[in-house]
Design a protein that fits this description.
Chain lengths: 424, 462
């Protein structure tokens, strides 16, 4: 009897410590989750903090006097004259007029305020409307990318700004007078890559990614679904089928860069396909996503209850009819969800595309499956490695575009699952 | 015609063949008194005709696109005459690029030998006409085979059986793609690896402690004789992966335990998708984060402590890689912990153990093999991860265990050696394939081992 009370006493005395341990263990769990979520929040906050300015462009609006003497140009419709004409001088004159302490002799400093492409823009606009000759027009130009960085990140030490003291004063003044302003960056969404951050855009990369995704989807979905049906419904139970299964499971875990090696050695070297082509990128990503699609499609087929099959067989359907008419439609939502998730993975994939040459500097928007192209994540990689500070915000902005695509794909997958999923 | 356009045109032809087959079977059945005198439903005759039309044509199209470049090169180089035919692969590609430069006008045709100009003309001709030949061939095959398929439709023909048999074969072929992929991977690395070991000895590669793959272009060049010792790459990879696992395993495991044992459904429903978002972020985004935010922060922080840190420290890459594999570890451990039978839990709790004691002394030991399997899978992922290390780890192959220094990894070297133009007869390019082979073998072994452990563990409780 006394033995029992003694034991109960020991247990009671230990209880406090044990409960403390319990609370500590629980706190560790919460701490772990908090750490993981904090990492997520910091990651997103960092990207958005760096990237939101990428959606703004800095413009400079000038009153340009089209003086034929200063421009050495009489007739803007004469292409020979246009080629020889000076389109930089009117910009400098206009800037010098606006800044009281600047003269035309500060030519190089003034010229550093407007984008290097501005003279071409002026030429094109003047050729398009030759009646402007001899008049003064108000035209909005892109600012130089250094001015762009300065206007957006004046107070941030992390950005190196390549403007002289004099130029900074001018920019401050012009900004106050509303001549330099920031507005929505349409250039970013309507142009391809450029060496100049102010004129670089993601459209080329988006189109490249879409072309790659099209090839990937067109190949991996039918092949993956067909393979899943075969393995789940028709394959005889033998060594060979087992071998295929083991193969698929292992392929799902092979590092993506190995698929890049495969693409380089087989598609480019053996088959002689062009480098940098979205078609080859699509082939490589197809091989990479196939295991994901096969595995999720098999799970979807497995979840269709046997009673459906038995009922169809009972009314005389052949095995193929059972599968195509009854099992496949019921498994389709699960297959689609799995495929969308696989496609989202493929869209974010970079490493294999590096090896098949989709890292080239491509200015034009690709317009075919065999054109040179980059993809969105590769564009992020390229810009992140560029020395100009203007590219950092462009890279972050491109990441935001990429994440927007990925999130809408995942939302679509979740919506499909909610909407079409059936519980048996 | 562009291959893509031709593909869509063939698809349209397949549709036409289906319709023609469908209507022909109906027309044949009409005088006999309706489609119940057909052996199969009209749709099957349509599909049969479509298969006749489409399958051979699409196979030819795929083969043409795959081998077009090769065949053109063979024809052009073959036209050079026996004394000029290049002897090695490198020579052939050099010759080919010369010819295509002449053809595009980048190289003036006056300054080169006559056979080369002729070859250039042939190349231009072949390139211009190849698309036409392909279009002609594919469309005539589609038309002819489609006609045969259409013509042979008879009421007594069992179209359904034929269609189903063909479908089965197509499905089998699709399942075979997985095997072809594996074979492709093995063969694409094995040949180049063998050639690499023809130039560099096994001992130098596996036990050498210095890695500098620049090879002298000229015999008298200074300071770049090429060293291919993989030890520094190997230790660099291990260092970064170890840092990643030190971050990911405790965080992932503890959050999985909390989520599966303590959290109520509402918290679970909120936290789990948020954790999965970490898994959905592309690796290039993590690389950007590591290179532009974490690495400078660590360098500044180490400076303020008075310890020097490289701006591309192994710590930055490892930390961020750890964040990346947290969801991986946590979802795998979650599965494993949930697979432990409830009776074990109930038994322990009934004896008066607290929840944490149950977890630590009963469930964790029971789940340990499964968790080990999960950690091995996570390790294999960390070893094979490329973008984070390409962007945040360095290129210098330092043999060090200091996480504040810059190290390089196997994947970084593969990526840097193969980006841009390569010659396939220099050990520098071939080294990338040898490294790829090592990477493939190591990750494969880890995966096989992990899957085996996980499977064995599952069977134990089923």
């Amino acid at each position: 009897m006394s033995n029992q009370t003694e034991q109960a006493e020991i247990v009671r005395r230990s209880l406090k410590g044990r409960y403390r341990k319990e609370r500590r263990f629980r706190a560790y769990g919460i701490l772990a989750i908090a750490l993981a979520l904090a990492a997520l929040v910091v990651l997103f906050a960092d990207i958005i903090g760096k990237g939101h300015t990428g959606f703004l462009k800095t413009t400079i609006t000038l009153d340009v006097e089209m003086d034929s003497e200063a421009m050495y140009l009489e007739d803007p419709t004469n292409s020979d004259e246009v080629r020889m004409a000076d389109f930089v001088e009117p910009l400098i004159v206009s800037l010098a007029e606006m800044l009281p302490d600047a003269t035309v002799d500060d030519r190089d400093q003034l010229r550093g305020l407007v984008n290097a492409y501005s003279s071409n823009q002026l030429r094109d606009e003047l050729v398009a409307s030759p009646q402007w000759m001899g008049t003064t027009q108000t035209i909005t130009f892109l600012a130089n990318s250094d001015v762009d960085v300065y206007v957006k990140h004046k107070d941030d030490d992390a950005y190196s700004i390549k403007l002289s003291e004099q130029q900074r004063e001018w920019v401050d003044e012009l900004e106050q007078r509303g001549i330099i302003e920031t507005r929505f960056n349409d250039v970013f969404f309507t142009s391809g890559d450029s060496r100049d951050p102010a004129r670089a855009g993601v459209l080329g990369a988006i189109v490249g990614s879409l072309l790659v995704m099209f090839v990937t989807l067109a190949l991996s979905f039918p092949i993956g679904v067909a393979a899943a049906i075969y393995l789940e419904e028709f394959a005889p139970k033998n060594k060979f089928t087992d071998f295929i299964e083991v193969n698929i499971n292992n392929l799902a875990a092979v590092p993506s860069i190995i698929f890049g090696l495969l693409g380089l050695a087989v598609f480019i070297n053996l088959f002689g396909m062009p480098r940098s082509a979205p078609f080859v990128g699509g082939l490589v990503l197809t091989l990479m996503t196939l295991p994901t699609i096969i595995i999720s499609s098999r799970a979807a087929i497995k979840s269709v209850p046997p009673s459906i099959r038995q009922a169809a067989e009972g009314v005389g359907a052949s095995k193929m009819q059972v599968v195509l008419h009854h099992v496949l439609p019921l498994a389709m939502p699960g297959m689609l969800t799995g495929s969308i998730i696989g496609m989202a993975q493929a869209l974010g994939e970079t490493a294999p595309l590096l090896l098949i040459g989709m890292v080239a500097f491509v200015v034009e928007i690709p317009d075919g499956f065999f054109d040179g192209a980059t993809a969105l994540p590769v564009q992020v990689f390229l810009w992140a490695g560029s020395p100009e500070s203007g590219f950092i915000e462009r890279a972050s902005a491109a990441i935001m575009v990429l994440l927007a695509f990925l999130m809408s794909m995942n939302a679509l997958a979740i919506w499909l699952r909610k909407r079409l999923e059936r519980r048996w | 015609m562009q291959p893509a356009n031709l593909f869509f045109l063939t698809l349209a032809l397949i549709g036409v063949a289906y319709a023609l087959g469908y209507f022909r079977s109906r027309a044949l059945a009409a005088p006999m008194g309706g489609i119940r005198h057909l052996k199969s439903l009209p749709g099957y005759y349509g599909v049969r005709a479509a298969m006749w039309c489409g399958i051979p044509a699409l196979i030819v199209l795929a083969l043409w696109v795959s081998f077009e470049g090769q065949v053109i090169q063979l024809l052009v180089l073959g036209s050079l005459g026996p004394e000029m035919v290049p002897k090695s692969v490198g020579e052939a590609s050099l010759m080919m690029s010369r010819i295509s430069n002449i053809a595009s006008g980048a190289l003036s045709s006056d300054s080169v030998e006559q056979p080369l100009t002729n070859a250039a003309a042939l190349l231009t001709n072949l390139r211009d006409n190849s698309g036409n030949y392909m279009t002609l061939l594919v469309l005539s095959i589609a038309g002819l085979a489609g006609f045969v398929g259409w013509y042979r439709i008879q009421p007594r023909l069992n179209a359904r059986e034929q269609v189903e048999k063909t479908l089965r074969w197509i499905m089998f072929a699709c399942a075979g793609v997985a095997i072809l992929t594996t074979i492709g991977i093995v063969f694409s690395v094995i040949f180049e690896t063998i050639r690499f070991f023809g130039m560099v000895s096994f001992v130098d590669f596996f036990f050498g402690t210095s890695w500098s793959p620049q090879v002298a272009l000229r015999a008298d060049q200074v300071g770049s004789d090429g060293a291919f010792g993989m030890i520094p790459l190997f230790t660099g990879t291990l260092l970064i992966s170890a840092i990643a696992l030190v971050v990911a395993v405790p965080v992932g495991l503890l959050s999985a335990i909390y989520l599966s044992e303590y959290a109520n459904t509402r918290v679970r429903g909120l936290v789990k998708p948020a954790m999965e978002m970490l898994a959905g972020v592309p690796t290039v985004v993590y690389g950007f984060f590591a290179a532009l935010t974490v690495a400078p922060f660590i360098a500044d922080f180490a400076d303020s402590l008075g310890v020097g840190a490289s701006s591309q420290s192994a710590l930055a890459a490892g930390l961020v890689m750890g964040i990346m594999i947290i969801p991986f570890v946590s979802s795998l451990s979650d599965d494993v912990i949930n697979a432990v039978p409830q009776t074990l839990r109930d038994g322990s709790l009934a004896l008066g153990a607290t929840q944490s004691e149950t977890m630590k002394k009963v469930i964790f030991p029971a789940a340990l093999p499964g968790i080990m399997g999960g950690i091995l899978l996570a390790a294999s992922r960390a070893i094979g991860e490329t973008m984070i290390v390409v962007m945040a780890a360095g290129l210098a192959a330092n043999l060090t265990a200091n996480p504040l220094e810059s190290v390089t990894t196997v994947t970084v070297q593969i990526a840097t050696l193969l980006v841009g133009d390569q010659e396939f007869d220099s050990p520098k390019t071939l080294a990338a394939f040898a490294l790829g082979a090592m990477l493939f073998i190591v990750t494969l072994l880890l995966n096989v081992l992990a899957l085996k452990i996980v499977r064995k563990y599952r069977e134990q409780y089923e």
